[in-house]
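A.,

Following up on our hallway conversation. Structure tokens first:
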């Protein structure tokens, strides 16, 4: 299990999540709820650089994200 953090709102907001699936192009993330999470944010996985993401799909407590080019 990988615990990660998403960062949004110009770095003012953070929310922990669990990475359920990780690939070169994206990830499946689990939250207590996906309500209120924006469509774009940075995924911070320990030991890795922040990864810009865009939401591809949402469910009640999970979402799939697509990795975007950095910068």
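Then the amino acids I'd put at each of the 71 positions:
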């Amino acid at each position: 299990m990988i615990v990660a953090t998403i960062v949004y709102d110009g770095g003012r907001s953070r929310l922990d999540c669990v990475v359920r699936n990780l690939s070169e192009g994206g990830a499946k993330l689990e939250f207590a709820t996906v309500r209120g999470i924006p469509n774009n944010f940075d995924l911070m996985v320990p030991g890795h650089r922040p990864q810009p993401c865009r939401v591809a799909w949402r469910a009640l407590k999970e979402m799939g994200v697509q990795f975007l080019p950095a910068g």
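Residues 1-31+43-54 form one domain. Curious whether your intuition agrees with the design.

B.
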